[in-house]
Design goal:
about 300 residues, Quinone Oxidoreductase, Chain A, domain 1, Rossmann fold, 2 domains, 6-stranded parallel beta sheet, 10 helices, 13 strands, about 30% helix
Length: about 300
């Protein structure tokens, strides 16, 4: 369950910022935490992603001032009117980017960035398959890849979602039924260079069948449930395939890497090359309804909470 309660304001420690929340990003990981799929100590306040205005500085903080608009995907307990974050894990939002956009960007935007640039390296002219093309990561990843000259196939479950995915630049949008065979048809029987799969259990086998020889499988989520154990010999039989199970934190290991990823995303937004779609907004007190919508696959783009 999720309950809306009054608790004491958090206090910033040394090297931390206290932030007055403007908007909070809702992500699948919080549904896993609530359901027990991921273990957390209870009672637990979810949330790692939000934007807001700096309300107070902890001891030793440099580079920020009270009143700065900041964003992060690395805070704690952001399902709240105020939250605390390490100063080194927050970034100042450039002028011209709204607070709701800033809250919708970090986790999905940074995820799309590391998927496009680091977890796999598709080249201009390659064809890739992105599952859940109308989801928040799918829409952003499609835009980033097409800007690099990559041909993107996506999957989407409804005509409305398929249209959204095409609007982000997808060359073809496929139904989930038969997507593996269709992917091969669209690549002359060869298969795709990379599959980006955040769905998990329901698409895993088809994703393997979609890959070309020496193709790369990037499994970055489990919206339909975790993938059961499987025989690694299947990678050999499929054509010397490779598979990776990355997570965002391993691609934000240094201040320089964090600054590079945020910088490229902010520049793309400012240039009008990256559209951040906010698909649903809920009051903070209705966070449980936001989770239900996300788990029910009723949303597109990003879901945010607003205090």
């Amino acid at each position: 369950m999720l309950r809306f309660e009054t608790v004491p304001d958090p206090e910033p420690g040394a090297g931390e910022l206290l932030v007055q929340t403007r908007a909070t990003g809702v992500n699948f990981i919080e549904t896993y935490q609530r359901s027990g799929t991921y273990s957390v100590p209870f009672p637990f306040t979810p949330g790692a992603e939000a934007s807001g205005v700096v309300a107070a500085l902890g001891e030793g903080v440099d580079g920020f001032e009270v009143g700065d608009l900041v964003t992060t995907s690395e805070a704690r307990a952001t399902y709240a009117e105020r939250f605390v974050v390490e100063a080194g894990r927050a970034v100042r939002v450039p002028d011209g980017i709204a607070a709701d956009t800033a809250a919708a960007l970090p986790l999905q935007g940074l995820t799309a960035h590391y998927l496009a640039t680091s977890a796999a390296q598709p080249q201009s002219g390659d064809t890739v398959l992105v599952h859940a093309g109308a989801g928040g990561v799918g829409l952003l990843l499609t835009q980033l890849l097409t800007a690099r000259g990559v041909r993107v196939l996506t999957t989407a479950s409804t005509p409305e979602k398929q249209e959204l995915s095409r609007g982000a630049g997808a060359a073809e949008v496929l139904d989930y039924d038969g997507f593996a065979d269709r992917s091969r048809e669209l690549t002359g029987g060869e298969g795709v260079a990379v599959v980006y799969d955040g769905v998990g259990k329901n698409t895993f086998d088809g994703s393997l069948r979609s890959l070309r020889v020496r193709g790369e499988f990037v499994l970055f989520g489990a919206a339909s449930g975790p993938v059961p154990p499987f025989d690694l010999q299947r990678l050999n039989a499929g054509g010397s395939l490779s598979i990776t199970r990355p997570s965002l934190g391993h691609f934000l290991r240094t201040p320089e890497e964090r600054a590079w990823r945020y910088g490229e995303l902010f520049e793309a937004i400012d240039a009008g090359e990256l559209d951040i779609r906010i698909g649903a907004r809920f009051p903070l007190a209705e966070a449980a309804a936001a989770h239900a919508a996300l788990e029910g696959r009723e949303t597109t783009g990003k879901v945010i909470l607003e205090p």
